[in-house]
Amino acid sequence: MTNEASFVYTEAFKNYKFRDDHPFNQKRVELTYKLLKSMNALNDQQIITPRVASDEEIALVHDRKYIDAVKRASEDKLAQEESLEYGVGTEDTPIFEDMHQAAAQLVGGTLTAVDAVLSGQTKRALNLGGGLHHGFRRKASGFCIYNDAAIAIQYIREKFDYKVLYVDTDAHHGDGVQWIFYDDPNVCTLSIHETGRYLFPGTGNINERGHNEGYGTSFNIPIDAFTENESFLSAYKESLTEITEHFKPDIIVTQNGADAHVYDPLSHLCCTMEIYEEIPKLAYQLANEYCDGKWVALGGGGYDIWRVVPRAWAQIWSVVNNHGETFSGSIPKRWLDQWQNESPVNLPATWHDESSIYEPIPRKEEITEKNAILVNKLLEPIRNEQKYMM
Ligand SMILES: [Zn+2]
Q1: 8 Å CB contact between 306 and 344
Q2: Rounded to an integer, what distance in angstroms lies between the CA atom of residue 182 and that of residue 365?
Q3: Residue environment code for 359-379, b if the CB has 16+ CB neighbours within 10 A, otherwise e
Q4: Backbone phi, psi, residue 74, to 5°
């Protein structure tokens, strides 16, 4: 029998930990899991304990020399010059004990989610421990050691020859995944993110459209800093709908970073919980329409681990598990009581945010207009092609 949805989870996700004061904190996965458990929204039959990815699987995307370097770094046996060449031991991505094992566990989580969907065991699967979209073939970058999303896509390509649509709604450009499949016509990447003008990683320009045979299968929407819900959602919905119709994927993989929220300390977007209610709904709908429901959803960035990430990620599970429905009303008191003492900030008591959580943005109109122009420019080639075909 096919389950509607599966939730990949292990406490070992928390072993992916750079330092106590590092912004990337996998405690957010546990907070989300406990939030869902506190309201009986996740039953034990839906939870899958993930495997650890093998070296062969990691090597679907990453260079063997790089994997070897990460292994040596794990045991503190990597020389400094070499570590910098591989992007580890930096301020963003410091070396920690057993980092290879911890990173391979996140990859294993994503592959477990993919296996569950491809085997027909489940229609949709969620691995909030994954979504490390900045990892490159030979280099760690932006808190990401192994790029589980890219490994999973390559795994799908080799095992099933499916056309894969990758949708990245993290506030940062999904650069690692984009460059890895830049010349692959069977993998389409769409990333909506804050413009790289002032934000890491600096790429994700609208002109990055793919290379050689892959030209026309890479899409970027670099929205302005201070973009709000309405403009974010209109850009997301318009582009994703038209791109899906154009590309006709067999499966959708989403990276659901939750760092576009106004509370997030690492980005400058001004969205609220509304986008995290709407983003998964459209992915759900399009997966049903084009992919017989097949959808693998991953985590990603998200640095307000108390007020934003647990609510945002619990909503993805709600959509995945409840036929596109989101939670509304109050956050369970049991969960608030359990965590309020540990949280340095006041935990929100409702699922939905009021728009009054931030001051009105004076440049709202200008930003909205700029984003709309961008989307038109992005979709112009698809629309023209359609015109000729009619
Ligand atoms: Zn991010």
Answers
A1: yes
A2: 34
A3: eebeeeeebbeebeebbeebb
A4: -55, -30
Distance 163 CA to ligand 1 centre (A): 25
Q: Which amino acid is at 377?
A: K
| Residue 377: predicted pLDDT | 98
**Residue 194 Cα to ligand 1 middle (Å):** 9
Alpha-carbon distance of 380 to 374, in angstroms, equals 10
Q: How far is the CA of 212 from the centre of ligand 1 (A)?
A: 28
CA 264 to centroid of ligand 1, rounded, Å: 10
* Residue 89 CB neighbours (<10 A): 16
Length of the chain: 390
pLDDT at 188 over 70: yes
User: 362 vs 39, 55, 226, CA distance in Å?
Assistant: 39, 51, 10
Which of 134, 172, 173, 193 is catalytic? The answer is 134
What predicted TM-score, i.e. pTM, was given to this entire model? Answer: 0.98
Give residue-wise pLDDT tens across range 237-252: 999 999 999 999 999 9
Distance CA 138, CA 99 (A): 16
DSSP 212-252: GGGTT-EEEEEEPTT-BHHHHHHHHHHHHHHHHHHH--SEE
Active site residue 134: yes
Angle at 127 between CA 242 and CA 342, to 5 degrees: 120
* Non-local CB neighbours of 379 within 8 Å, separated by 6+ positions: 238, 239, 242, 243
| Residue closest to 172 by CA, chosen among 189, 150, 142, 194 | 194
Closest CA to 247 of 370, 344, 165: 165
Q: Residue 127 pairs with which residues in a beta bridge?
A: 298
